[in-house]
User: What shape does this take?
Amino acid sequence: MFPKKQIKQNVVISVFILIALFFSACSSNYVVKNEPITKPNVSESQKNTIKDLNKIADLAYQDLKNSDWVMMRSKVTQLAILATKLSYEGLTTVEGVQAINQSIAETMYSLNAVTPNPMKISQTMVRTRLVLDALEFNNEPMWIDFYEPMKKDLHNVVLSVEKNHTENTNNALASWKSRVSMVKSAIIISNGISDTIKLESISTFIENATKTKNVNVLKQTEPDFQNILKDIFKKNPNRDHETIAPVAPQPPDALLWSFIIGMLIILVLSWVAWRKYHAEFGIVRVKNERDFDKGI
Assistant: This one.
């Protein structure tokens, strides 16, 4: 009835329409539901190992306060050995594992220096203490206590630049960077790598702005930076789910409606093709005997 070329064209067009409607319906009908993310169960062995790590870290921190480098070195060595025995499955991300190992390693390096730097040892030990604490107490980690001091540091940087006090600016900036260095690894454990990147970006920005003494830029950006800082420290570190709302309300049974519309389009295309064929090739209906009997 139809020329082969026309039939092929109709089939190809129909298939493409159906495919397009199918994927359109699937995408429109897919809505991310507000369901909690299932976390792997943490075994008792993992919990016990984490507790042991924190106990040793706490003892090492006490040695730090007593300036007992020998005993502290022994404790940090125990941490390094025990950390390799911990299975991190279900505990943290790849970046988190790297943060833990790097914190312990840097503490060990600072202790084994030819000329130990007490400030460097203190910073690295505090970082290790915080990162292990975040691993055990994810709901209320100790690093959250750094919010108020860091908020004050950020404001002092802007204020010092505004008053053109170079020494105060340098002190405030050094204090800010030191605290960022101490909490960033623990934040990776609790919140993920993105919040640490935000803090490091703020540090780079304000450091460059203080070098050029760009007071206006610092004053304009401080409220935004303070809001970012508040968001990082005040949000619930143990986020179990994330709500993603659909862009617009979707009709029910979108896939079914798309299929019906697709079939209607195919029927219309077939009818148009038949009419075109009829017009071009002049199909004439052949009369039969019944037509002659009826006088047609």
